[in-house]
Design goal:
The chain is α+β, with helices and mostly antiparallel strands. 24% of the residues lie in helices and 30% in strands. The strands form 2 sheets. A 5-stranded antiparallel sheet has the order 1-2-3-6-7, sandwiched between helices. A two-stranded antiparallel ribbon has the order 4-5. β2 and β3 form a beta hairpin. The radius of gyration is 16 Å and the shape is globular.
Length: 181
């Protein structure tokens, strides 16, 4: 499936809550494939649909050699907290220490509409919480304490990519033999 451009900090779609998925169809399966391929090519530990411009409650993850996806997630968080570095494909090349629950139980659906439960700790728990935040229009920098958020915003404003126009996706006028939509 085609690699999609990743939306960067400042793109309005990253701040809008995503809509629940209601159709578990071919288009959803294509979206999951696009998310997975884009995430792995980036590379990243997770990618949410709004990060590629799709306002639906879907995300993928790649942690400890495991690739997965979750549709319409709901989370139960453990009480123990982890504090460690976190980054985001929509805020490239920057990371900041962020507090998250160390354990998570995520419930939702697979791309075919089957119910699934994912239990994760440490990095998987962090990735699931991070991507679910994207579905709610929340970025990890929003979770930083005031001093760290100030430093993060300064670093973002100074980043080479900050303020650049989003890439335009064009469809080839030539035959692509099924490799483009």
């Amino acid at each position: 499936m085609p690699i999609q451009p990743i939306r960067l900090f400042g793109d309005p779609i990253l701040r809008k809550p995503a809509a629940e998925v209601v159709d578990f169809d071919k288009e959803l399966r294509r979206l999951v494939e696009d998310l997975t391929d884009t995430m792995r090519a980036a590379p990243g530990a997770g990618l949410a649909a709004p990060q590629i411009g799709v306002g639906l409650r879907v995300f993928t993850w790649y942690v400890d050699g495991e690739v997965g996806h979750l549709v319409n997630p709901s989370l139960d968080l453990g009480e123990e907290i982890q504090d460690g570095p976190e980054g985001c494909l929509s805020i490239p090349d920057l990371s900041f220490d962020c507090k998250r629950a160390r354990l998570v139980v995520a419930r939702g659906f697979d791309m075919h509409g089957g119910p699934i439960v994912v239990e994760g700790s440490d990095l998987l728990a962090r990735a699931i919480q991070h991507e679910t935040d994207h579905l709610d229009g929340v970025l990890f920098v929003d979770r930083l304490d005031a001093d760290a958020r100030k430093a993060a915003m300064k670093a973002i404003r100074e980043a080479e990519w900050f303020g650049l126009d989003q890439p335009t996706v064009k469809v080839s006028p030539h035959p692509t033999f099924g490799s483009a939509r």
